[in-house]
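Input sequence (149 aa), recorded before submission:
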Amino acid sequence: MTMIERLWEDFRLPIRDALHFAEGRSCDVGLGSDAPSGMRVLAPFDLEEMLEIDPSWVSSVDGLVAVDLGSKGLLWGGEGSYGSEGFIARLTADRSLIWAILFTESNPFDRIRLSGNVATFTSTAGFEITVDIDDPGSSAAGPLGSGNG
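Predicted structure, token format:
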């Protein structure tokens, strides 16, 4: 089990603007109103190394909105422990993590629009993040960790 899967068991995510995949890849992301998707995918980082430095640097998340994908799982959006945090995630049908993104300054996500495999998550502050639900790392700014942006 990866570090992010262990955190997700307790509905926790690291307090960092980042995209995490269940298999263990993580990369920084940034809100970007000038980016077509509303975010930029930045450099990869080592989550275990980050949490070694400060294991308490995590936020509990709570869902506010969901879209049922049937046998393909669930899209989920909501809030973190602090008022400014928002998260979006895709889960399996049994609610295991596929991927999750936390933003520290987006405010909670309370709306999801789905069109095919493209979902747009909207926060209470009006931020809109659009991702390919099968590959959120490439939909925003090219391949995961490409440094585009």
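Checked by second reader. Helices lie at 3-9, 47-53, 136-141.
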